[in-house]
Amino acid sequence: MILTRACDIIALEQKQARVVSIRKEDVKMKQPSATTIYNAALYMRLSRDDENYGDSISIETQRTVLRQYASEHNLRVVDEYVDDGWSGTNFERPSFQRMMDDVKAGKVNCIITKDLSRFGREHVMMDYYLEFVFPEQRVRFIAVTEGEDTEKGLSDFVPFKNLFNEWYAKDTSRKVKTALRAKFNAGERMFGYAPLGYKPHPEIKNKLIVDEETKWIIEKIFMMALHGDGATKIAHALTREKISTPGYFNYIRYGTFAHIYAGAPADKCYTWSIKQVRNILGDETYIGHTIHYRYTRVSYKNKKKIRHAPENLVRIENTQEPIVTEQVFRQVQQQIASRHRTCKNGTTQIFAGLVKCTDCGWTMIYDVSRNGRAYYRCSKYAQGSHRCTMHYIRYDILYAVVLERIRYWIQQAQLNEEALLKHLEKMIDKASSTEAKKQAADLAAARKRKGEVDSLFARMYEDLISGKITEYNFEMLSKKYQAEQEALSERIDKLETSLADRKAQTLNVEKWVKLVRQYIAPTELTAELLNALVEKIVVHEAVKDEDGIRTQAIEIYYRFVGKIE
């Protein structure tokens, strides 16, 4: 025991001597003691884009490299963390998050990965982890094949490596999109699973063949629709007859949708939704065609999907054998369209989806009273919920008011386009100029403060290394400034978005006036005219004054420009 303590003292004195001799600017990370026990996490990642490399970076190859390195350097392996099929630009990977949770819990103090790109391919996030998170958490980071080790100090080339890795991710994303487009044009289907009624071709990749086992379900759905049944009635019939859902077929065949069906009640596999039926009835797959680019990702970094505009869809015909004829399919589409537009009295509903309740925001529904008078009422109120009021308005009054206002603005556009433009721009400026100036000032202040906080972080770290502040104070201040950084970043994003939207309003004004000029003195309202010019019509509850005179406010919000006064 005495000998051990003496050795410890000598080791401590040697360490202190070494620290004194090191220049401040040479210190990249606070050095651990000679007796530090490293509990290592082996992190492995492989994305679909990495398949071109073959076995050179496979999960098994990475595991072999990391295990060998840990063994040779006497590092205790705590656990393995594997993200297979995840992009390096996405830091919300499940195993990555689990590893970082273990770091915060003190379970892991060393992370070993094959190279920097396995850890991530986004240079800002890489800098964040390497320069802030790991030093703060006292975590050693090792990229084996690149010889990078925070204990020894990272090389000056690390930032450039991270930039290159990000560029590679961007370039790969572009190449993948090009390759997919070529496959799409060749009639190949690049989907995760086969739709109900089909199954993958046993020999030809990305090709569908008719599934005789489930084909009859699709035929049944279309025949019911052809005979006048709506999606609701069809869904109830399929559920009542205990016909398995599309998702359940994929679950029992391929193991997909396990999060929905595994351990679920027995009747879950037979519970059809109205949306499922509607999707099938509107899917051109069943007449032998394939529609591509329904959705696209925000960017190669952000994997969130957004719906493509109709004009950007790619339609490839005759990619597989049809289950229903095109004639049946088109008849069904016509019936669906007419059902949505036809009222109880047989007239066409031109205001469908446009009339909104001002209090609850729900769409108002069309109805006809016993005396044959058409009107609109709040759909929330109509369901029996008294959380809103009826907001009753006669159809003829609504029709007259909307027609008059649309005719007025069309006339103004025809008579003096320039004057109308100035009026709209003035209206927008009046509503937003003061707010825009305030937002611009707030944005400048937020950017300035964020720069100050970033600099404070750097100085704090230098003070920690030099011993000017304690580790406790450093951690306390770090949490404070990190929270402020996140709040500032969020505020900057919101302000930038808001200001960008305001700049776009001027262009929207010109777009709306150009659109209005296409119409000349309409004498009646049509669904086409309303959907082209109007975004929504907001109806207020009617009120009576002291004389019993009933008045009711109606607000028309036009496309691109909103409400015009």
Give a quick set of tags describing it.
disordered N terminus; Hect, E3 ligase catalytic domain fold; 20 strands; 3 domains
Please tell me about this protein's structure:
By secondary structure, the protein is an alpha+beta fold. It folds into 3 domains: 140 residues, Rossmann fold, CATH 3.40.50.1390; 141 residues, Hect, E3 ligase catalytic domain fold, CATH 3.90.1750; 223 residues, no CATH class. It contains 17 helices and 20 strands. The chain starts with a helix and ends with a strand. The N terminus is likely disordered.
Q: Going across the biggest sheet, name each strand in turn.
A: 2-1-3-4-5
Mean pLDDT: 77
What structural class is derived from the secondary structure elements? alpha+beta
Proportion of strand residues: 5-15%
- Low-pLDDT ranges: 1-33, 298-302
